[in-house]
Each structure stands twice: as C-alpha cells, then as structure tokens.
Amino acid sequence: MLARTAFRATAAPSAVARRGFQSTRQQLSSPYHYPEGPRSNLPFDPLKKGFAFKYWGFMATGFFLPFGVAVWQTKKNKP
C-alpha cells in the first residue's frame, strides 16, 4: 500500500508541472474583464474636485443623524 502511494507521488509532479496558470489574449480582450490597479474597483472617483467635501459631508450626516433624531424624539410634544 505504501509502495503504491510512493509511486503515485513520484509520477504526479510531471502532470502538475505541465499545468500553466495563465490567461490567453482572447480572455483579456473580453468585455467581462475589467481594468485592474489602484482606485479601479471603487464606485466613485476620489481624484475629482470636491470629493473631500462630499466624503466628509456624507460621514458627518451618518454620524450626527441618529443624535438629531434622538433629540427630535425627546423634544416633540407628548400626548
């Protein structure tokens, strides 16, 4: 049993060595292959003018909105 396993282990590297992990030119030119690199996977462009203002405005709204709602709920008229 061990001899069979050892034989398979010595015969396998030739099959594994031939396998190449590469992309062909046809696959890279397909419409489903998107560009790679920094900032290519973001749904927005951080290099545009006014991005910092929009970003911090969005963050401030998300942070302060719950506090504003809580204050409004406590100050509104109680029946």
Automatic annotation (TrEMBL):
Biased composition (Polar residues): 21-30
Gene Ontology cellular-component annotations: mitochondrial inner membrane; respiratory chain complex IV
Subcellular location field: Mitochondrion inner membrane
Topological relation to the membrane, as annotated: Single-pass membrane protein
InterPro entries, alphabetized: COX7C/Cox8, COX7C/Cox8_sf
Pathway assigned in UniProt: Energy metabolism; oxidative phosphorylation
Superkingdom of source: Eukaryota
Region described as Disordered: spans on this chain: 17-38
GO biological process, one term: mitochondrial electron transport, cytochrome c to oxygen
UniProt entry keywords in alphabetical sequence: Membrane, Mitochondrion, Mitochondrion inner membrane, Transit peptide, Transmembrane, Transmembrane helix
Coiled coil spans: none
Principal localisation: mitochondrion
Residue spans crossing the bilayer: 53-72
Subunit (UniProt): Component of the cytochrome c oxidase (complex IV, CIV), a multisubunit enzyme composed of a catalytic core of 3 subunits and several supernumerary subunits. The complex exists as a monomer or a dimer and forms supercomplexes (SCs) in the inner mitochondrial membrane with ubiquinol-cytochrome c oxidoreductase (cytochrome b-c1 complex, complex III, CIII).
Reported function: Component of the cytochrome c oxidase, the last enzyme in the mitochondrial electron transport chain which drives oxidative phosphorylation. The respiratory chain contains 3 multisubunit complexes succinate dehydrogenase (complex II, CII), ubiquinol-cytochrome c oxidoreductase (cytochrome b-c1 complex, complex III, CIII) and cytochrome c oxidase (complex IV, CIV), that cooperate to transfer electrons derived from NADH and succinate to molecular oxygen, creating an electrochemical gradient over the inner membrane that drives transmembrane transport and the ATP synthase.
Family as reported in the entry's similarity comment: Belongs to the cytochrome c oxidase VIIc family.
Name of the protein: Cytochrome c oxidase subunit 8, mitochondrial
Organism of origin: Pseudopithomyces chartarum
